Amino acid sequence: MIVYEGTASPSVRAGELEVASRRIAARAFPYAGEAGGARFRFDPVERRFFARAREGTVLAGPHDPGAWRSAFLRGLAGPVLVGPGSPAEEVRGSYLAAARGAADSGRAVYLLDPDPAGLPEPRGRCFTVLHGWFPGLSGHARILEAAREKGIPAGWILPLVPGWTANPGFVAQAAARAAGAGAAFLAGVPLAEDGLARRIALEAAGASDPGAAESLFEGIHHGGSGGQMREARESLVEACRRHGIAAVPPRPVGTRESPANAAAAARLEERALEISGDEHQAALLHAAARWLDESGRDLAPVAREGNLPKVFPFGPELAHDVEEALLGTG
Question: What 3-state class would DSSP assign to 128?
Fold first, then answer.
């Protein structure tokens, strides 16, 4: 039996986080507790699988959007993430309240694994739906269909697990399946490298293919070199291109954000993904994206006047790229 206990305080974790190569400044947990729903879920922020119990207690956050809005107004500027959802959403309403509160705060909002009942009404380009998908998981079509009906961009997050989902052949199949299901994107997220992450990933893989336990063990525990993961990512990008879908989620735009600033930050995040092997340069690009999120003003007029290099603190070369994105010429 799953017991849901209501809480009066929103659970929001602030700090520099990343989801599918997109920067987020905070994360909300409408439901806290790994019980109920699918047996396994993949968390693209933690980059690991979680095993869910059949029984247990789940803390459900407040169903007042105002409480969530107040929580989101604190902390760093930039997009936020809400989720995952819960099968109890239709009764509890905590996910929908958190999503509405995030939008009310003026933030761009990524919605992770929502139950269809938790999808808010669209507000411009405020929302993007992220749905973690891997072999053996069901229910993905229902979420994509509900998002499409509301006009909210939605797609899949694929955990890249060595020996299982990171094989180039599988990545190609996943892109075809995502496109066929109506996903707007398929973004690959590498599994965390610690032993516990690999152990639970092996459990999830074994549940989807019980007959391949031995080969899965070898691949998951002893694969995953830098070269293999780069090949998996390159294969994913190429497969997405062939099927006409993106390989990274679209960055949403908050109701109080500058669309030009958001477009420039998205460009920097995508460049950081392209050069992920150069950690120093990637960190610089993410820092520049954070600067754009925190600027507090629309920088497009500054760029049109030719004054962006005077205020942009990350060098003239990067300023040129940002200027192009701000002006929509890149």
Answer: strand
